[in-house]
Structures are given as C-alpha cells and as structure tokens.
Amino acid sequence: MLSSLRTRSFVALALLPAVLIFVVFAIIPIIWSMYYGFFDWKGLGAAKFIGFKNYEMMLQDPIFWRALKNNLILVVSAIVGQVPIALLLALLLLKNSFFNRIIRSAVFMPMVLSTVVVGLIWGYIYNPQIGLLNQVLETIGLESWTRAWLDDPKINMFAVSIPINWANIGPYLIIFIAALQNISSEVNDAAKIDGAVGSKKLFYVTLPMIWDMVVVAIVLCISGSLKAFDHVIVMTGGGPAQSTELLATYMYNNTFTVYRYGYGSAVSTMIILISALLIGLNYIITKRRS
Questions:
Q1: Domain containing 199: what range?
Q2: 91, 239, 251, 263: which has the fewest Cβ within 10 Å?
Q3: DSSP run (H or E) holding 250
Q4: In a domain, 34, yes or no
Q5: For residue 39, what are the β-bridge partners?
Q6: CB 180 within 8 A of CB 210
Q7: Residue 28 pLDDT class (50, 70, 90 cuts)
Q8: SS3 label, residue 138
Q9: CATH number of 140's domain
Q10: Residue 27 domain-assigned?
Q11: Each residue of 60-119: pLDDT tens digit?
C-alpha cells in the first residue's frame, strides 16, 4: 500500500511541471480569450462590456460564413485525402525493407519542412507564369487546362488543400505503421487459417484492430484543418476577395489588422466550439460504426 502511494506521488510530481505549463500556456489563455469575447476592446484603453454583441456581428458577417465553409472544405479534404492515403501507404510500406524505409522518409519529409516553406514551394508550383504545374500541362498538350490556380474562386480552395494534405500525410503514415506492427502474428495466422485474405482481411481483421488509431487520425485532421493558417497566409493571404479566407485568418485580420481584440477573441472562442462540435460528431459516428 505504501509502495503504491509512493509510486502515485512520484508520478504526480513528475507530471506536475507539464500540467502547469499546459495550464499556463493553453487553458488560461483560452479562458482569457473567452472573457474578452464579451467586450469591445482595441488592445489599449478600457474594455467596454457588450455581452453577445461580438457573436451577433460575427453570425451576421458573410465573410465569417465563407471562412467557415472554406474550413469545412479543408476538413473534408483532410479526412478523405490524408487518412486513406496514409493508411494505403502504411499497408504497402509495412515491411521493414531498405526501399520501404526510403519511401517512408520521403513521405514524412514535408512534415519536417516549415509550413512557410511548403507554402512558398506550392505558391511557385501554382504560379500562372512560371509555375511547374502550368508548364507540365502545356508540355503534354493541355494548354486549355492552364490557369491562375490560386486566383480562381471556383478551385482555389481545392488548390490550397493539396499542399496542406501533402504536408500532413507523414505523421499518419507513422501512426498507422506502428498500429499495424502492433497486430500480433497470432491474429494474422488465425485470419489466414479462417480464409480471411486480401480485402476480407483488411475490412474484417486489420481495420477493426487499428480502428482506434483511425479515429485519432480523423480527430487530428479535424483539429488541424480548423486551425490551418500558415499555408493560406503564405499562398493567398486569404484572397482574392476573401475567397480563401479561413477562420484563423479571419480572426488574425480582425485582431491584428484592424485591432478588434474583443471581436477576435470571440472568433477564437467560436473556433474552439466548432472544433468541439465536429470532434463530438466524429466520436458519435465512429462509435456507432465500431
């Protein structure tokens, strides 16, 4: 009993610094931001309490709804793009051969790069005059397909989503490879004896065994897509005409460009609420499916 108490005390003391850092740099700023969301504050001077006025203005602003729509496009593209591609690559690269290790490193490499660098690289790829994409299309005789990819409101959000997905497949690849390697050989042998091979093994043995990791990956996709910022700021700045505006860039512009700190705090609170709602819906859907 005494030994168990000592172990728990040691664990609590070991975790205390990390918990304090998390509370100071995450929980307290969130609470502080929620508090200022009820005020009209320019960053200097006295803050005027206005209740839910910031939220009313937000819900009446068409740019907010456009930013929310764009974020939802990113969420869907991340779930449809990052998770299935990472899972497919994990299945193909599961064997620990030299060639597979090289491919894994290549897939993970974009994650090592700064998001600003990724945005600049893809900005040059999409450049209508000197961009690689248009040059390739011209070379293979598809001149009619060339366009200003980041300036066309019909496609620029999808163009923005590609580099974001490209840069974030790596971590999910590592997660899925670790989960697949964690499946015991006894389970695989039993599945083989029962005749579960190919797609049957994938859907009735492999996926159920790693389903928790798939759910974690989807949650990370949702949270990551809702806080996307750097790629868009570098490639488009939210333009043209707010056609690629995201919730994070909308919050940034209102807070640090026009100095509406109270309004920006309300937007940040709304981002948290939307994230919690989508993650909760994901939990309900995946729980029923599992």
A1: 58-289
A2: 91
A3: helix 247-252
A4: no
A5: 49
A6: yes
A7: very high
A8: helix
A9: 1.10.3720.10
A10: no
A11: 999 999 999 999 999 999 999 999 999 999 989 888 888 888 888 888 888 888 888 999
Contact 68, 274 (CB under 8 A): yes
Domain count, the chain: 1
Q: How far apart are CA 193 and CA 207, in angstroms?
A: 18
Task: Please work out, in degrees rounded to the nearest 5, the angle formed at the alpha carbon of residue 31 by the alpha carbons of 75 and 287.
Answer: 40
Question: Which is it for strands 39-40 and 48-49: parallel, antiparallel or unpaired?
Answer: antiparallel
Name the 3-class secondary structure at 40.
strand
Residue 4 lies in a domain: no
125 C-beta neighbours (distance < 10 Å), count: 19
In a domain, 49, yes or no: no
Strand partners, 48: 40
Token pair 């509370």: residue: 23
Task: Map residue 82 onto helix, strand or coil.
Answer: helix
Kind plus residue range of the DSSP H or E element containing 28: helix 28-36
Within 13 Å, how many C-alpha atoms sit on residue 108's CB side? 15
- Tell me if 245 sits within 8 A of 63, measured CB to CB: yes
The first and second tokens of residue 28, run together, are: 């307290």
Is the N-terminal amide bond of 171 cis, ω within 30° of 0?
no
The predicted pLDDT at position 58 comes to 94
**What predicted TM-score, i.e. pTM, was given to this entire model?**
0.86
The DSSP secondary structure of 171-215, one letter per residue, reads: HHHHHHHHHHHTS-HHHHHHHHHTT--THHHIIIIIHHHHHHHHH
